[in-house]
Amino acid sequence: MQIEQIYTGCLAQGAYYIESQGEVAIIDPLREITPYVNRAKLDNAKIKYIFETHFHADFVSGHVTLSKETGAPIIYGPNAEPSFDAIIATDGQEFTVGELTIKVLHTPGHTMESTSYLLRDHNGKDHAVFSGDTLFLGDVGRPDLAQKAADMTQEQLAETLYDSLRTKIMPLGDDVIVYPAHGAGSACGKNLSKETVGTIGGQKETNYALRANMTKQEFVKEVTDGLLPPPQYFPLNVKMNKEGYEDIDAVIKRGTRALSPEAFEIAANETDALILDVRSQEEFAEGHIPRSIFIGIDGGFAPWVGALIGDVQQPILLVTPEGRQEETITRLSRVGFDNTIGYLEGGFMAWKKAAKEYDSVSSIPAARFKEIIEKEETPIFDVRKNGEFTSEHIDKAHNTPLDFINDHLPEFPSDKTFYVHCAGGYRSMIAASILKSRGIHNLIDVAGGFKSIKEAGIPVTNYVCPSTLK
């Protein structure tokens, strides 16, 4: 028996490869299926089943393409109604993979079709549970994403999740390994651990949602407290996972169309395409195509694209580092953005050599920023998440989280220079690009973000828990 967690950090997502005696089960595959197919070939094994824990909202799964490629059936738990052929398993149904048994545990609550899969070894002993978005390490799946589809309130879904955890998950042995669908960084929960593998016993000790003496009312209150609105692209990804999608090879072929600066400019003007620049924030600050949006490929790329662009049908033109256009298109497709129509051949340097107009972002080091704010009072905008800001921030700074920056546009002054920062410089450059695309140019980015601000000795306000106040 071998179990491999294939973890994708950008999405904080875990897919699983399970092999026994030449038979393979895949759980929650990513859209690009080559790694799973190649791994099975390496093991001289055949992919027998593709298990889906639910209709994922935060990424497009590879189940449809993988089934088409291998002939392996797709398996969902009860209540799933996909538009394609699939096995809709019953609660408790079992499937064999070599010497192993995979038992269906219907665990609704995150969504009503949410299902966990219990793996038993060749002796019939419970070995591991693949818990999808039902149970994470440190948290449980948010219960607000399926309200419309299930015709239920988030409170009713939370009550259902409470029952699922206590009747299907918590009775498992403490030594049973927990393999969740996500880790820290996913928007599918609030307090996900950085660890990606745990045990039932460990979660009973550390996960607030699995407290033995927790009432259903307490669970509902704690699980629903502090939920931020889900990213705009979530329901669109659910739709693709439920109804099917275009093969990724066709998406890549269309997107890797090399365009000269002249052709790129014509395409931008004629198609209303969004120009997405995925280079480093330093390169973008030095020079970029006017009104282009920066979301760097070497950061939390795909989730930020989904959160800020929203519409998966949006035509996109790419400015990428040399040789990374296919990688960029692949990572866009993971979250359903399939409408890349080309990339700038030769990159930004080709644009400059063609004497095309370009823009830049003013950026200063934290030491210079310190000198400025010591001499004068100036508007400061912190684009970190509310929790980060509440914990620690510059006195008198405004919190305008990047996730919801379009809701804060009226707050940015038009008649004076203001400063923008985040934690390390990635998010503030995204914010700067969005503001400039909206015609707001009187901004200066603080390079290195809050980390550099503290290192420069700029005073910050620390949050003090009220219970510690005398």
Q: What distinguishing features does this structure have?
A:
Rhodanese-like_dom, Oxidized Rhodanese, domain 1, about 20% strand, hydrolase activity, metal ion binding, globular, Metallo-beta-lactamase, Chain A, about 475 residues, 3 domains
How would you sum up this structure in a few lines?
GO terms for molecular function: hydrolase activity; metal ion binding; sulfur dioxygenase activity. With 470 residues, the chain is α/β, with parallel strands linked by helices.
SSE layout:
Layout: E1 2-8, E2 13-20, E3 23-27, H1 34-42, E4 46-51, H2 63-70, E5 74-76, E6 87-88, E7 94-97, E8 100-106, E9 115-120, E10 126-132, H3 147-150, H4 154-169, E11 177-180, E12 198-199, H5 200-206, H6 216-224, H7 234-243, H8 248-255, E13 258-259, H9 261-271, E14 274-277, H10 281-286, E15 293-294, H11 301-309, E16 316-319, H12 325-333, E17 340-344, H13 347-353, E18 363-364, H14 366-375, E19 380-382, H15 386-391, E20 392-394, E21 398-399, E22 418-421, H16 426-437, E23 443-446, H17 449-455, E24 460-462
Parallel strand pairs: 3-4, 4-5, 5-6, 10-11, 13-17, 14-15, 14-16, 16-17, 18-23, 19-21, 19-22, 22-23
Antiparallel strand pairs: 1-2, 2-3, 7-8, 8-9, 9-10, 11-12, 20-24
